[in-house]
Amino acid sequence: MARMEQAIKDMVDMFLEYANGDGKLNKDELKNMIQKEVQNPELKAKLGAVDFDKAMERMDKNRDGEIDFKEFLKCMSCMAKCYYHKKTGKGKECEEK
Amino acid sequence: MARMEQAIKDMVDMFLEYANGDGKLNKDELKNMIQKEVQNPELKAKLGAVDFDKAMERMDKNRDGEIDFKEFLKCMSCMAKCYYHKKTGKGKECEEK
């Protein structure tokens, strides 16, 4: 499958798998997703040190205590911008906190 | 590579490849990307019928005539929401126009 379609399909399928049927990720489901879907040691160490309460707070724009698909896509975009910055030096640097 | 990393890597690599070094996609580069990176017949037919001038207008938020990485990610998120809606019936339906 071509990359554009694969990336779109993977983002949707990942979310649906870990959101466990209710269409939202709670903190444990988000943690479980990141532990399983991130293998790169450097990224894993960075994300492993993340304060998940803070991360949830930043991602949970509508303050319902869970991450819906729209909020999840924002998180994916943020990580993509960090990787883009790392690769090109352009765009916004990642906020490590 | 795990799906989350692969999706992020593919979105960045695709953009950089088709943006040809200047960090922006012009209309021809966008068309070339979609022709090469979308193989699904149904999606290809849909996107093939798209008025690229209109699509550029909608994607080009800062009105500089080209698509930067941030605008490209918004487009990817929009397509992911369409696929999510198609798969679950939830979320926003795609605007076909």
TrEMBL record, chains A, B:
Transmembrane segments: none annotated. Keywords: Calcium, Metal-binding. The keyword Metal-binding applies. One of its GO terms (cellular component) is perinuclear region of cytoplasm. InterPro entries: EF-hand-dom_pair, EF_Hand_1_Ca_BS, EF_hand_dom, S-100_dom, S100_Ca-bd_sub. It comes from the Eukaryota. This is EF-hand domain-containing protein. CDD domains: S-100. SUPFAM superfamilies: EF-hand. GO terms for molecular function: calcium ion binding; calcium-dependent protein binding; transition metal ion binding. Residues 47-82 form the EF-hand domain.
